[in-house]
Amino acid sequence: MNGILELFTWVNIRFLLQGLGMTLFISALAIVCSIVLGTVISIMRTSNSRVLRGVATVYIEIFKNTPLLLWIMFTFFVAQLPPIGAAVLAFTLFTSASVAEIVRGGLASVPFGQYEAAKSQGFSTVQTYLLIILPQALRNMVPALLSQFVTTIKDTSYLWGAMALQELMGRGMILMNSYNSTAQIFAIFGIMALIYFVVCFALSQVVRAYQRRLKEAHGA
Amino acid sequence: MLDIFAPYKWEALFQRWPDILAAFGTTVGISVLALVIALALGVVFGVLSVSRIPVLRGITRVYVEVVQNVPLLLQVFVFYAIFPLLGLSIAAFWIGVFAIGIYHGGYISEVVRSGIGSIHRGQFEAAKSQGFSYWQSMFLIILPQAVRIIMPPLAVQAANLVKNTSVLALIAGGELMYFSNSFAGSTSYYGPVYVVAALLYFIMCFPLSRLALYLEQRTRSHRHLATGDATEELGEDALEVTPGTHDITGRAAADTLAGGVNTMLETVDIAPARVAPSPRHPLHVLGEDAEAAGGRGPMEQAFTGRQAAEIADEIGREIAQEIADDCGDDPACATRIMHTKSGRVKAHRRLERRAAARRGLEGDARDAAEDGAAQPATRHAAAEGVRDLDAKRTPEADEALASRAETATSDRITAKTRRRADEAARDDAARKAVDAGRNHGRSPEADDRRTEARAEALLDEEAFLDNDYVPGELDAPAERIAHERAAHDEGDFDAESESEVRRADLREKLQADRLEDVGGPRPEPSEEEVLEDEADTAKRIADETAHGHLDGKEEGR
């Protein structure tokens, strides 16, 4: 039992929380990039050009049907990027396929009359999307995007195994090396799980609350 | 860049093709086994998550939340570390199967939960009304239908599961991703192997996600359908539906029942429902009788969902009829019939009688009544049912039933009103007879008054009928009244004109009463109350009429 208490030093906790910081940094950066890329792909997918539609569809299908870990390996070993760059790129590529689907749903939730209204007022296509459609679509997309964020946070745990990037998982594993009793190792597992759980659960509660609010707003 | 994909690297890779195939086979094996575990866990926990017992719901909640909010890799590592601790040396393959199975079990249980939640709650009522237990209705009626809604997100989950097997590379799982990594690591030929791995994963996942899309389009009309990867936060809608705890009342219950039955009929011939073991189960009575079913007793007969739904429908209509007959608009009474066993049993009995009578028609009713042992629950039913033969159901009869249910209340109340008025008239007549006995000379006048009282009674009834319609109509039916009364009072024009004045009075009074009722503290007096008030008023007026003539006499006494 003493062995477990030993773990709770300020140094250890700060060490782990820094790892959490890295996890959140990569996830947030990846999700922001994914939203941009995903929106572009989604708009391509609904465009009139057959080529653009085809490219977008192929992109989405490829990334939806292959594992993330593969793309992490790919960006790190094949593209030979530095760890953080490789991580963000892999996550962006992979997540943007999901985000594109989410954005498509969000765009579909905006009534078609809004496009026509914007056109009738002389907005260009880019202006229509940026100023009229996306702000409205975003509101409906927030829950799905946040839950995608949760998924991304969980998936960053691959980064230690794949490219030795010191995010939360990696920091935990490093910490484990300096302790050797079984109880301590499982305690570290427990702490890591707890940190992930608190962050992800809090976010998914936010998602639920937001969904409820959206539902009420639609109901009213 | 091109160097990465140099031809000799491809050659080196394809010299290892048996290993590639083996790794691919391992991935498929892990995926299939993990999917089996995930499905089992998903169904069990999905069903438990809509259980009536809070502890079970709590357990599923914890399981789902933990599994969904902790990274899969961490869970895999925990399993990887925990088995040696228990003294078990387990291959990475099985660790992968268990960890991934348990992980996706959490997601699938959410899918199942939302699938169950999307089934019309009337289905539970319908199943309950025909005596299915909770578990029977869940597994025989609800889940088979929910499959339609569950399938698309399930296919998405299966694709995700295949993708997630790749994490086992990090615990040397021996599957495709692990092979890729080790090949890439040992030869530093990174390019080709990842491309091939991507292709192989794509081959596995693409059909699954196409299947999901296809299934989804097929069931798109369904309102609760969840789409694509969004399954992760699926099931929010389903939260509210906890079978057995929802409370619906009276007519709404009957309507819901009908709605559920309709849904049931639409999803025709769902899983055949085995007859419940209880000999009192309605299906025993209502199914084909043993001879027609080829010598099989009622316990051996299997019912299709359609038959079960039809029976549920019949019972639902019986209950609705029961409510219409006994309750009028009294919601408490309707609730009682809907929610208590005795209420439902009554409906069952009626249906039993009808079924027995139907059998009696086909075979020999008397036989059925005597041969009670073969059909224990129907002995009396058959005997009674012979009487019910007239009420045998036809489409026309059903229509008639609907209108009868509507008018049942009014008929009953009309009868009551008429009875009261008749009583008043009888009293009146009796008094007048006494009167006449004392004053022989005044007999014609007494006759007059009797006619008058009778007229009042009819007027009374008329007032009720008026009341049943829009208030404005109250003035309209003067002609109708005159017309109807003509049949009774032909030639009695004096009485007619005399009561005309009184009728106007009565009308005013009734209107005033109604205004009082509307403006009063009671928001909506039940129809019955209003009518009883009116009947009282009518009786009072009738009494007053009588007394008006008696007063002098009484005083004289």
UniProtKB/TrEMBL annotation, chain A:
Pfam families: BPD_transp_1. Its main location: membrane. The chain crosses the membrane at residues 20-43, 68-94, 185-207. GO terms for molecular function: transmembrane transporter activity. It is a multi-pass membrane protein. It is found in: Cell membrane. Coiled coil: none annotated. Residues 20-207 form the ABC transmembrane type-1 domain. SUPFAM superfamilies: MetI-like. GO terms for cellular component: ATP-binding cassette (ABC) transporter complex. GO terms for biological process: amino acid transport. Belongs to the binding-protein-dependent transport system permease family. PANTHER family: INNER MEMBRANE AMINO-ACID ABC TRANSPORTER PERMEASE PROTEIN YHDY (PTHR30614:SF41), MEMBRANE COMPONENT OF AMINO ACID ABC TRANSPORTER (PTHR30614). This is Amino acid ABC transporter permease. It comes from Enteroscipio rubneri. The lineage of its organism: Bacteria, Bacillati, Actinomycetota, Coriobacteriia, Eggerthellales.
Automatic annotation (TrEMBL), chain B:
GO terms for cellular component: ATP-binding cassette (ABC) transporter complex. Residues 357-557 are annotated as: Disordered. Pfam families: BPD_transp_1. Residues 526-535 have a biased composition (Acidic residues). Keywords: Amino-acid transport, Cell membrane, Membrane, Transmembrane, Transmembrane helix, Transport. It is found in: Cell membrane. Residues 24-212 form the ABC transmembrane type-1 domain. InterPro entries: AA_ABC_transptr_permease_3TM, ArtM/GltK/GlnP/TcyL/YhdX-like, MetI-like, MetI-like_sf. One of its GO terms (molecular function) is transmembrane transporter activity. Residues 357-369, 381-396, 420-457, 477-490, 499-519, 536-557 have a biased composition (Basic and acidic residues). The chain crosses the membrane at residues 20-50, 62-83, 89-112, 132-151, 189-213. Belongs to the binding-protein-dependent transport system permease family. HisMQ subfamily. This is Polar amino acid ABC transporter permease. It comes from Enteroscipio rubneri.
